[in-house]
UniProtKB/TrEMBL annotation:
<dbReference type="InterPro" id="IPR014729">
    <property type="entry name" value="Rossmann-like_a/b/a_fold"/>
</dbReference>
<dbReference type="Pfam" id="PF19269">
    <property type="entry name" value="Anticodon_2"/>
</dbReference>
<dbReference type="InterPro" id="IPR020752">
    <property type="entry name" value="Glu-tRNA-synth_I_codon-bd_sub1"/>
</dbReference>
<dbReference type="InterPro" id="IPR045462">
    <property type="entry name" value="aa-tRNA-synth_I_cd-bd"/>
</dbReference>
<keyword id="KW-0963">Cytoplasm</keyword>
<dbReference type="InterPro" id="IPR001412">
    <property type="entry name" value="aa-tRNA-synth_I_CS"/>
</dbReference>
<comment type="similarity">
    <text>Belongs to the class-I aminoacyl-tRNA synthetase family. Glutamate--tRNA ligase type 1 subfamily.</text>
</comment>
<keyword id="KW-0436">Ligase</keyword>
<dbReference type="InterPro" id="IPR000924">
    <property type="entry name" value="Glu/Gln-tRNA-synth"/>
</dbReference>
<keyword id="KW-0030">Aminoacyl-tRNA synthetase</keyword>
<feature type="short sequence motif" description="'HIGH' region">
    <location>
        <begin position="11"/>
        <end position="21"/>
    </location>
</feature>
<feature type="short sequence motif" description="'KMSKS' region">
    <location>
        <begin position="205"/>
        <end position="209"/>
    </location>
</feature>
<dbReference type="InterPro" id="IPR008925">
    <property type="entry name" value="aa_tRNA-synth_I_cd-bd_sf"/>
</dbReference>
<dbReference type="InterPro" id="IPR020058">
    <property type="entry name" value="Glu/Gln-tRNA-synth_Ib_cat-dom"/>
</dbReference>
<dbReference type="Pfam" id="PF00749">
    <property type="entry name" value="tRNA-synt_1c"/>
</dbReference>
<dbReference type="GO" id="GO:0005524">
    <property type="term" value="F:ATP binding"/>
</dbReference>
<dbReference type="GO" id="GO:0006424">
    <property type="term" value="P:glutamyl-tRNA aminoacylation"/>
</dbReference>
Length: 436
């Protein structure tokens, strides 16, 4: 086991926490937890023009929702300017930095590159060599007194005792500059691990055209945090077997950087939907109802809830039919609303004049039922199919379309029981007067 492991996740608060950033945070968190180490949260907000408090809060909320708790922080770089100034002065005194006047930007400080071959052993990609003589002297403190990313990052990592830097491989080009700064400042080098990027389903870099890209969007769409964490963990890492559904504890126990892929992973929305549906099905019904309440409220369906017992039955009935929490609202809208939309294809196929006598007979007989229970409903409808000498589907499908508006739903008896007598009869009457 590694000792005294300390890793960090340093988001820039310029927008939402994207899936790539969430995966980086997760890998750092898993690595820390696996090694009994510490996970540090650092807000890199030195870009004063683009950083906002709102974005900072959104990132904190997203990490909290994902369950990625941090052991230290959040540290804000904008509150550590004196620390960076102190280390700029050290480099100036050592002759490793110099002032430069930049037009319209003020007096900046540049770091002096000595020019040498730098190599480091990346824990994912192996040995990486870089000739720093090809790198120009670069700015470490801007004219406004704020440090640049590369400088503040190195100072913080050094002072915070970061042992491993686990980040996206788009930062690989920064590493030679940062290694030069570590050495010049006398800090011990951390171990680096650069994770390949996440690609869209078509193999191109993931972007808005592939659908949702931020944790906030996935949360709003109705994905469960445990499902999303499980899914992004497997975007570039394998537990070493074919297991796809893992608890957090299993991920912590199995996580090693040795099993992180060198090649980019592709985001698979179909797989995410499948995984989320599995987590929905495994959630205790009361917990699931609590998760669903915000979506029911947003759809203004609260007034349609007849009782807690009724909602419990409805969720239980549809538990294996929806892949996201928001999809539950779409599928069950006919149970909450007084009016429904009818699918044209379903109407054309099932609400034909040839079915007129069947539906009218069902309407009359259902009116006579006192208790709209599954047992009573089944007895009533099966007696009709026996009288008309037709298969049960010949009656069930037209009734389903009449009361739900589409040809797919949960079991017809359960559906009618939950709809209740008043809604069922009202919709059958509408169907008879409109379509038959």
């Amino acid at each position: 086991m590694s000792l005294n492991v300390k890793v960090r996740f340093p988001p820039s608060p310029t927008g939402f926490l994207h899936i790539g950033g969430a995966r980086t945070a997760l890998y750092n968190w898993l690595f820390a937890r696996h090694n009994d180490g510490k996970f540090i949260l650092r807000i890199e907000d030195t870009d004063q023009q683009r950083s906002t408090e709102e974005a900072t809060q959104t990132i904190l909320d997203s990490l909290t929702w994902l369950g990625l708790d941090w052991d230290e922080g959040p540290y804000h770089q904008s509150e550590r300017l004196e620390v960076y100034h102190e280390y700029v002065e050290k480099l100036l005194k050592k002759g490793r930095a110099f002032y430069v006047d930049e037009p319209e930007k003020g007096r900046a400080v540049r770091f002096k590159i000595t020019g040498e071959v730098t190599d480091f052993d990346d824990l994912i990609h192996g040995n990486i060599k870089s000739d720093t003589s090809l790198i120009e002297d670069f700015v470490i403190q801007k004219g406004d007194g704020f440090p640049t990313y590369n400088f503040a990052c190195v100072v913080d990592d050094g002072l915070m005792g970061i042992t491993h830097v686990i980040r996206g491989d788009d930062h690989m080009s920064n590493t030679p500059r940062q290694i030069a700064l570590y050495k010049a400042l006398g800090f011990e080098l951390p171990r680096f691990a650069h994770i390949p990027m996440i690609l869209g389903e078509d193999g191109s870099r993931m972007s808005k055209r592939h659908g949702a890209t931020s944790v906030t969007e996935y949360r709003e769409k109705g994905y469960l945090p445990d499902a999303l964490v499980n899914f992004i963990a497997l975007l570039g890492w394998s537990p070493g077997n074919d297991q796809e559904l893992l608890t957090r504890q299993e991920m912590i126990e199995k996580f090693t950087l040795k099993r992180v892929n060198k090649t980019s992973a592709r985001f698979d929305n179909t797989k995410l939907d499948w995984m989320n549906s599995k987590y929905i099905q495994d959630l205790p019904i009361e917990n699931l109802i609590n998760e669903l309440h915000p979506y029911i409220k947003k759809a203004n369906f609260n007034g349609g809830i007849i009782s807690d017992e009724w909602l419990h039955k409805l969720v239980e009935l549809y538990k294996e039919r929806f892949k996201t929490l928001s999809e539950f609202v779409t599928l069950t809208a006919p149970f909450f609303s007084d009016e429904i939309e009818y699918d044209d294809t379903a109407v054309q196929k099932h609400l034909k004049k040839g079915n007129s006598s069947l539906i009218k007979d069902a309407y009359e007989k259902l009116k006579e039922i006192r208790t709209f229970s599954i047992k009573e409903l089944e007895g009533c409808l099966r007696s009709i199919t026996n009288e008309h000498s037709v298969s049960f589907g010949k009656l069930a499908q037209p009734i389903r379309v009449a009361v739900i508006g589409k040809s797919a739903s949960a079991g017809i008896f359960e559906t009618l029981e939950l709809l209740g007598k008043e809604k069922t009869l009202k919709r059958l009457e509408y169907t008879i007067n409109t379509f038959l």
